[in-house]
Fold:
Amino acid sequence: MRDYLPHLQIDTDLVRKILVSFLRQEIERTGLERAVVGASGGVDSSLSCFLCAQALGPEKVLAVLMPYRTSSPDSLADAQEVVRLTGVNSLTVEITSMVDPFLERFPEADQRRRGNVMARARMIVLYDQSAARGGIVVGTGNKTEILLGYTTLYGDAACGLNPLGDLYKNQVRQLARAVGVPDRILAKAPSADLWRGQTDEGELGFSYDEVDQLLYLLVDERFSPSECVEAGFDRGFVDTVVERIRQSQFKRVPAPIAKLSNRTIGYDFLYLRDWGT
Amino acid sequence: MATESRNARGIAQGNSRWYHGPVRLRIALAQISTSLGNVAGNLKKHIELARKARRQGAELILFPELSLTGYVLQDLASTVACRPVADDPVFSALLHESMKIDMVVGFVEEDCRNRFYISGAYLSRGQVLHVHRKVYLPTYGLFDEGRFFAWGDQIRAFDTRFGRMGMLICEDFWHASPPYLLWLDGADVLLFLSSSPGRGLHQKGVLESAGWVEQVNQSYASLFTSFVAHINKVGFEDGLNFWGGSTVFDPNGHRLVCAPFHEESLTLADLDLNQLHRTRARLPLLRDERTELVLRELQRVLAQSGRTNNIR
Structure:
């Protein structure tokens, strides 16, 4: 397979400048002054914390650490290290007491359901802090996981602004390294940490570097699946990824509204969110 | 003949200059962020910057595409439209300001038949000298202009107190023909207005779209031995970034100024208009341009069905 990783290289100074300005200006336009970030100790949320601290000043950023009883202690320690390095405010809210009573009602729930409940419990905590502190929830989802649908709708996908959603995981890592996210966080296997031993790459069945290169060709370069195979990707891998993208489209768009009137939200009632600001 | 009066550019003979217009022009590039749909707020910014530019000796200030309204207007388009006439409240204020400094502003124009255009106006000494309606409306990728706006259908150069100029808006100069037509119509200074969303990641220090625009502007300056001033906006509209990096190139294709990327600025460029004389003495591309040949071949091409896909 040809090596497409060089095509994913970014100018980290330029991207940082754009994303920091994006956070500063777009938060200001909402009329809010603060940011609320769920800090998991992973690369994505650590990077979001660093960018928010640069954009607003650390005193205006709240990192919320939300461990569950099965979460890895290392995750909490890594998140605390990011809090220390960035100087942002922090709050630890264990979600065990929210999640367990709920799951007791549904003991048959499989790992997927349990993971979704945890992700949505964290969303409730973040949005409550958003209301309590006048801060916007800044997302941590990257382009790879959004395209693969490797995310919980109304859970970790829920946010008011997303600075990382147009960066593949490989590019997130480049930027994270450049802004000072610790090596320890960069080196560990990415994980949603929803159950013991879970890793993203184990669950997905392929590595981020592999899938980032394929997504780059499919999405950015508009290669057909056959052209991706000609470029050296395994046919089964290509088909799996193409199907994942298609099947997860529902996570990337607002729920369709049934059109009845002459002017319908989403179809012909069209305004940016920045309308009037 | 109109072409002679309009093109009274400095032709120096020996040391005596017998052309009567100014030799130098200080242009201010007002690289601003706009408030989406807030015409009053944007107008205030225009007036403040025009005054600041005047204090700094500028004689012409350029604002970006849709500088009075913001770019991604969608359903706001019809609600922010105005008419470039003296009794329009927005233009009344701008025309008053233009008594002291020439201004180029971007706005939504509503015509007498209630069609809406992306337009640019050149204002000077209380008069609207020229209005350009964007002729190429990008409706692909992230762009949706053709859905909300009418297509302009004229590309005309116009006379100013600094010589003959031409104005284009963003996608207009992504096509080679509009700058070419302005050149043939006598424009020696090309004014390009953009609200260009930044896109394309690579390692080169600027976004791909920014690199592309700078490259073509430099090429137009070189190919047409003319000045090319490009003003772009900055800031964000939802997730879109506008990259700034406004430039002026001289008739040799040399970059005179480049405004900062992604930051608001008021950047001054001093144009030595006699550079046109010196460059064209060395490189007579305009003299040698075979316009009849172009027309003949273009007519032949257009007569062949299937050769071009857009006869409009």
In short: The two ends of chain B are 30 Å apart (CA to CA). Chain B touches chain A at residues 33, 35-38, 70, 72, 74-76, 198, 201-207, 235-239, 241, 261-262 (CB under 8 Å). Residues 1-18 of chain B have pLDDT under 50 and may be disordered. DSSP finds nine helices and 16 strands in chain B.
